[in-house]
Amino acid sequence: MSVIIQNATYWKSFEKYNQIPLDECFEVVFAGRSNAGKSSAINALTNQKKLAHVSKLPGRTRLLNFFSVGDGRFIVDLPGYGYAKVPQRVRRDWPEMIEGYLLDRETLVMVFVLVDGAIGPTPLDAQMLDWLRENEIPHTVVATKSDKVKSSKRPARKRDLAEGCQLDPGDVGWVSSTKGDGIERLRDLVRLHLAG
Ligand code: GDP
């Protein structure tokens, strides 16, 4: 089975997860607070300038957006959480549909949680991670925008961000979508999870 992330194409969007027709497939999910850098990371991974903009088109921002990267292999872009101005529980911001999808979808092999590396994790990110842990949903934290952190401050920032996520620094991936740092590594990881 060949998975070529750079060949990603938009497949379909779904409003309800039980409308997704395929059940013999593998998919990885990208989740994150709005503005965390999720679209930029998907575009960098796929080496396409506008692919993830599909998810930001009117009417698509609350949907599960599927991108095909090989036969029965998908990257799923989830709606950004955290629209509310004040921090609320993730579940109130996120439609039940998305929770249902994350809880029940057996073909989902990994949730990549993108956290803004310059400012995160926010309380919403922490709540999201708690929820994933409570529900034993496999997930990996990827910190974005590493280029925005001065190199002199990087070690401390990496420590603080990991601590805020209740992880060891070595368990958090770091990427810069604008500079390309860490993208190849993340691409390899995505490919590995989708290899089945
Ligand atoms: P999304 O809402 O999570 O999809 O976030 P976007 O990908 O649209 O990014 C939100 C903002 O952060 C935009 O202004 C991007 O240009 C900026 N951004 C995203 N990734 C990076 C990065 O790696 N470095 C820098 N400096 N800015 C970034």
Summarize the structure.
This protein has 196 residues and is α/β, with parallel strands linked by helices.
Assign the structural class, choosing from mainly alpha, mainly beta, alpha/beta, alpha+beta, or little secondary structure: alpha/beta
| Poorly predicted ranges | none
Characterize the biggest β-sheet: 7 strands, mixed
Shape: globular
Number of separate helices:
6
Helix content: 25-40%
Report the portion of residues in β strands: 15-25%
With strands numbered from the N-terminus, the spatial order across the biggest sheet is 1-3-4-2-5-6-7
End-to-end separation:
9 Å
Total beta strand runs? 7
Task: Name the average pLDDT.
Answer: 91
State Rg. 16 Å
**Order of H and E elements:** EEHEEHHEHEHEH
Bound molecules: guanosine-5'-diphosphate
What does this structure look like?
- With 196 residues, the protein is α/β, with parallel strands linked by helices.
- It is built from six helices and seven strands, in the order ββαββααβαβαβα.
- The protein has helices spanning 38-46, 90-93, 96-104, 123-134, 154-164, 183-194; strands spanning 9-14, 26-32, 64-70, 73-77, 108-116, 139-144, 173-174.
- The chain has a seven-stranded mixed beta sheet, with helices on both faces.
- Strand 5 (108-116), helix 4 and strand 6 form a beta-alpha-beta unit.
- Helix 1 crosses helix 6.
- The longest helix has 12 residues, at 123-134.
- The N and C termini lie close together (9 Å).
- The mean pLDDT is 91.
- Bound molecules: guanosine-5'-diphosphate.
- Guanosine-5'-diphosphate is lined by residues 32, 34-40, 80, 144-145, 147-148, 176-178.
